Amino acid sequence: MTDKVRWGILGTGKIAKAFASALKDTPDAQLAGVGSRNLASADWFTREFGGTAYASYEDLVHAPDVDLVYVGTPHPMHYENVRLALEAGKGVLCEKAFTVNRRQAEELVQLARDKNLFLMEAMWTRFLPALAEVRRIVDSGEIGTVRQVNADLGFKAEFGPEHRLFNPVLGGGALLDLGIYPLSIAVALLGPVDTVLAHADIGPTGVDEQMGILLRHGGGGMSVCSCSLRARLPSELTIAGERGHVRMNTMFYRTQTVTVVRADGIARTVPTPYIGNGYVHEVIEAQRCWRAGLIESPGMTHADTLALMGVMDEIRRQIGLTYDADSTQLSSTPPKENE
User: Fold this and answer.
1) Which of 110, 121, 149, 318 could be cross-linked to 98 through a Cys-Cys bond (beta carbons 3.0 to 4.6 Å apart)?
2) Which of 49, 239, 210, 68 is nearest to 147 (CA)?
């Protein structure tokens, strides 16, 4: 085994570029290769970030100098892409949303377990210093017993109907792209979900353009989450207890400060800076787990991913949103790549 963890990136889109940038700031990480169904795209990517360009995903996942594969393609492609890498014997870090539905996620988790391979959803917010600080404050009892989480994330998406965000073939909609962030962190803070109530505005392309979600958690807490492709929301998160609240400030998913406000009026702000562009922390965790021979991360377990996919399946059922993957066989041909 080399001193560095050698990464292969599957896909060359915007999120793949952000991940490649993070690797430069991650200790012991090396970009070994990039795979695309378009060699020119892979060549262009490697000229900027390094590594070897591969003209197919198959070539990338079978490359002997690749240890872990990062999947950064559109949501409906994740199932086929992750399966390809696992079948090649490679551990995988797959961008959120992990798959389109829980049925796909269950099969991939089972395959990883059967092959004893590392598999993790790339929910980078689970590993940020800000969330660790919020948990420390909550565990200290400073704000009392936690009762509620409020979280939102939204912006005005200035794209045409063919864009990934609005295209149902590419898993478009606010839920899978934005809503998953407040949902995931609400579950991380309040625990498993018992009941779900969702309302959404469906746009002309047939996908959800904004949504409000009310969750009741098993521990007795409640969370209110919203997401939008129509409005620029505050994108903050507040976790409230009987004696105060903690706020993850200004774009909670990448905040560098958290503010504690107590019922007696005393408030303080705690710096929580992250490394690089923020993705570094999930890379560090993936590398730690892979080196330790783990097949999942305790910070984002397989059970966490499956439970969240199940919650989103129920949300989509309530708002009447379906994708092709909901009615097709798991071995179906993936949609055309949108890199």
Assistant:
1) 121
2) 239
Tell me the torsion sign for CA atoms 283, 288, 293, 298.
Answer: negative
Q: Do you know the residue count of the chain?
A: 339
The model's pLDDT over 44-76, given as tens digits with 9 standing for 90+, comes to 999 999 999 999 999 999 999 999 999 999 999
3 state DSSP class of 20: helix
Closest CA to 3 of 196, 291, 256, 238: 291
Q: Mind giving me the DSSP string for 144-187?
A: -SEEEEEEEEE------TTSTTT-GGGT-SHIIIIIHHHHHHHH
pTM beyond 0.85: yes
CA angle at 87 for the pair 37 and 44, rounded to the nearest 5°: 25
Side-chain half-sphere CA neighbours of 230 within 13 A: 12
Which structure tokens are listed for 201? Answer: 């505005």
Closest CA to 108 of 73, 84, 76: 84
Q: What's the burial of 132, exposed, middle or buried (CB within 10 Å: 0-12/13-18/19+)?
A: middle
